[in-house]
TrEMBL record:
Family stated for the protein in its record: Belongs to the CREG family.
Keyword check for Secreted: yes
Any matching Pfam family: CREG_beta-barrel
Domain CREG-like beta-barrel, first and last residues per copy: 49-218
Keywords from the named record: Glycoprotein, Secreted, Signal
Cellular localization per UniProt: Secreted
Subcellular location, principal: secreted
Descriptive protein name: Putative cellular repressor of transcription
One GO term describing the cellular component: endomembrane system
Record-linked Gene3D superfamilies: Electron Transport, Fmn-binding Protein, Chain A
Secretion signal, residue range per the UniProt entry: 1-17
PANTHER family: CELLULAR REPRESSOR OF E1A-STIMULATED GENES, ISOFORM A, CREG1 PROTEIN
Length: 268
């Protein structure tokens, strides 16, 4: 019995004493809060909300995004009506400011996306948690459901100069994308926003979850900041039993169903 307790203590102590580089492999097991919040657009440091909070996950990814993959219906004769995609710079607020949930972006008629949307303004954008390699750095393939992504469908709406929303969107874009100031002068870019129709969230196994626009806009993603501070401490993991056998020692870890832990790499 004493030997079993000693082994358990050794395992837990070993995990907690990993170096910073080694802890990358345990990042989901031992979450850490970002120390560079003003340089990041994360809602709550570097850690996403729990995968069961779909509306909050959507807001987290939107606020985090610097760009999206934007799909439109092509107007090019050879592929007319086919889906077409482009990389579009976006912002839902100025850098370091609170999330609004509304995506603002610049378009130009010199580009095929604006040409498509001028004929049919329906679009879908894809945002992935791996935009800043969050998943890849933790050994999670971007196609895995545990690497969260959202698909937002809606319509592009051109904003007219001279009102508060236009000024807010322009300042948000200039803050995150300083180069945008040159785009306006040289290529006649104009400011738009995404008017949301549907939000699909895929952040765990079992298929996507659909979040209503009302749920999405009502949720307070900044409330996750307080939770994020708690997440800075290792989440308790109960060791249910420890056994000896001819093949070696077996340790069973018991994790709550709604735990924020996504992956565990355990070395003994």
């Amino acid at each position: 019995m004493l030997l079993g307790a000693l082994v358990i203590c050794t395992v837990l102590t070993g995990i907690q004493s990993r170096t910073t580089e080694q802890r990358d492999a345990f990042a989901a097991f031992l979450p850490a809060v970002s120390s560079n919040a003003l340089e990041s657009n994360d809602v709550a440091g570097d850690e996403p909300p729990p995968h069961t909070e779909y509306a909050k996950m959507a807001r987290y990814l939107v606020h985090k995004a610097e760009w999206v993959s934007m799909g439109s219906l092509s107007t090019v004769d050879a592929i007319k009506g086919y889906p077409m995609v482009n990389v579009i710079a976006v912002a839902d607020s100025a850098r370091g400011e609170k999330s609004t949930g509304t995506l603002y972006f610049y378009l130009t008629m010199l580009d095929y996306t604006a040409q498509d949307l001028s004929k049919d303004n329906r679009l879908t954008v894809l945002l992935s948690m791996d935009q800043d390699l969050y998943c890849s750095k933790r050994g999670v393939d971007p196609m895995e459901p545990t690497c969260a992504r959202i698909m937002i469908s809606g319509r592009a709406v051109k904003l007219e100069d001279g009102n508060d929303e236009f000024n807010f969107g322009k300042n948000a874009m200039f803050s995150r994308h300083p180069a945008a100031q040159k785009w306006l002068a040289t290529h006649n870019f104009f400011l738009c926003k995404l008017e949301i129709t549907q939000i699909a969230v895929l952040d765990w196994y079992g298929g996507p979850h659909y979040v209503t626009v009302e749920e999405y806009m009502k949720v307070d993603p900044d409330a996750h900041n307080a939770a994020g501070l708690k997440m800075a401490q290792p989440e308790p993991v109960e060791i249910e039993r420890e056994e000896d056998s001819d093949d070696g020692r077996t340790i069973t870890l018991k994790i709550k169903k709604d735990s924020t832990v996504r992956h565990i790499n355990l070395e003994v």
